């Protein structure tokens, strides 16, 4: 985005921030994490964390953005007068940089699948949706690096041209369409044999399935889907119109994120049981199961093609803001430097994304810490940098900012929510985040 106060209306702001927040997190990451960490138990934890921790933090980020109105590596010093606090902004910048590195791997898979389905529709390839072989695709280093390169390239071109506004407009159509498609897939999935087991798996919390790791990853997932701690949402709020309503915007984003996550779960798990996959498939889950669901529909490949386009769109509206964050922090909103900086950032992201992609092929043997290189990049972002960023911001908001100014930025307060929210941010959230860190260490 080129200048501050870009969004003329509250709706524009909600569309933009929802487009950024809703992406691979809800559709791709949620189901695969839920599959590994206990289905319904994971969903329950995710809901609790999203509502009781994620929502107040999202409101906090919007409040900070609305007060600060500048790019995020300056906003902390602008608000507090303390230059060193900009480190929180840089932490977010580092987070989105690494995040884009592994996000693009999945974006690349979408592109490869799209290519595959196009060849099928044009009958260039004598194949069907059931024959798309996920393992064969991701174990091909050249193909996956190419796919992810295309994804990064597309993101870069959009950011360079500064046409995000056009995408925002398009998202008015694309996002609801994606929703409709998800619902169609859910209906189809529910009609398959054995679907009920899958529904039970994802909706019924079995408390014995809750593990410490599951708790940590569910919290990480809440941070991830709401983009917390990366300062992404702060940036969006800094462009928002003065009259934007923080609470209702935050609530709508939280609800949309939960809805998409649950729908993705309901699209995948019933079908998964029916096709004989295990819930613990990992990152490939969505890519293995959905083609099979579409293969059961008339014109399945055409529908799957449309679905992939919508999915790609959702991923791009997020990756664009990932890149945009890096660009705006380095250009300091000076548009003449926009193109070269977008280019440099994209090339750097491409470089770090290569080991992430190869985690599924030639480098799959390298595992440490949280798993493969890919898993570790995700872990560092979702479980370390994002919570750290959120912790820093809660400390700034709770300890340094003026309560009255916060109250004003918080906006109209019909339900008297400011006091409990402020209490949460000042006392509870920092303690919770620190506690999680300490637990994580052991
Ligand atoms: N929330 C995004 C998703 O679910 C991922 C994300 C995290 C993000 N932090 C961000 C996107 C910052 C844009 C900017 O896909």
Automatic annotation (TrEMBL):
Tagged with keyword ATP-binding: no
PROSITE patterns for the chain: NA_NEUROTRAN_SYMP_1, NA_NEUROTRAN_SYMP_3
Subcellular location: Membrane
Main subcellular location of this protein, as a coarse class: membrane
CDD domains: SLC6sbd_Tyt1-Like
Keywords recorded for this protein, A-Z: Membrane, Symport, Transmembrane, Transmembrane helix, Transport
Membrane topology note: Multi-pass membrane protein
Recorded GO MF terms: symporter activity
Keyword Ligase among UniProt keywords: no
GO cellular component terms listed in the entry, alphabetical order: membrane
Parts of the chain that traverse the membrane: 12-30, 36-59, 94-122, 142-163, 175-196, 216-239, 251-272, 292-320, 341-360, 380-401, 421-441
PANTHER family in UniProt: TRANSPORTER
Family: Belongs to the sodium:neurotransmitter symporter (SNF) (TC 2.A.22) family.
Identification of the protein by name: Transporter
């Amino acid at each position: 985005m080129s200048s501050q106060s870009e969004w003329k209306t509250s709706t524009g702001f909600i569309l933009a921030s929802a487009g950024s927040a809703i992406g691979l997190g809800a559709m791709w990451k949620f189901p695969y994490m839920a599959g590994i960490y206990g289905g319904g138990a994971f969903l329950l934890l995710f809901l609790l964390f999203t509502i009781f921790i994620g929502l107040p933090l999202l409101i906090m980020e919007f409040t900070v953005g609305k007060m600060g109105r500048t790019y995020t590596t300056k906003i902390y010093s602008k608000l507090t007068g303390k230059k060193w606090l900009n480190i929180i902004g840089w932490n977010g910048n580092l987070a989105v940089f690494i995040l884009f590195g592994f996000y693009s791997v999945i974006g690349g898979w979408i592109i490869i699948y799209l290519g595959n389905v196009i060849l099928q529709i044009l009958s260039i390839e004598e194949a069907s949706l059931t024959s798309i072989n996920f393992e064969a695709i991701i174990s091909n280093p050249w193909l996956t690096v190419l796919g992810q390169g295309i994804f990064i390239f597309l993101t870069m071109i959009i950011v360079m041209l500064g046409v995000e506004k056009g995408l925002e407009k398009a998202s008015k159509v694309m996002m609801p369409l994606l929703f409709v498609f998800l619902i169609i897939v859910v209906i189809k999935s529910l009609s398959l044999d054995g679907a009920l087991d899958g529904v039970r798996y994802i909706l019924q919390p079995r408390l014995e399935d809750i593990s410490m790791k599951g708790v940590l990853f569910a919290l990480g997932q809440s941070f991830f889907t709401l983009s917390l701690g990366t300062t992404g949402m702060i940036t969006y709020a800094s462009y928002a119109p003065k009259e934007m309503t923080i609470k209702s915007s935050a609530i709508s984003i939280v609800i949309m994120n939960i809805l998409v996550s649950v729908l993705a779960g309901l699209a995948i798990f019933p079908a998964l049981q029916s096709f004989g996959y295990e819930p613990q498939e990992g990152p490939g889950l969505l890519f293995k199961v959905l083609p099979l669901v579409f293969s059961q529909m008339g014109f399945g490949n055409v529908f799957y093609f449309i679905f992939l386009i919508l999915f790609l769109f959702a991923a791009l509206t997020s990756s664009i803001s990932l890149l945009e964050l890096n660009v705006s922090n380095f250009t300091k909103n000076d548009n003449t430097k926009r193109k070269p900086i977008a280019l440099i950032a994209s090339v750097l992201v491409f470089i770090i994304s290569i080991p992430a992609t190869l985690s599924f092929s030639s480098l799959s043997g390298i595992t440490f810490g949280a798993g493969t290189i890919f898993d570790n990049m995700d872990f560092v972002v979702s479980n370390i940098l994002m919570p750290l960023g959120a912790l820093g911001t809660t400390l700034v908001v709770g300890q340094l900012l003026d309560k009255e100014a916060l109250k004003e930025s918080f906006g109209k307060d019909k339900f008297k929510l400011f006091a409990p929210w402020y209490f949460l941010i000042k006392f509870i959230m920092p303690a919770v985040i620190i506690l999680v860190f300490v637990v994580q260490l052991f």
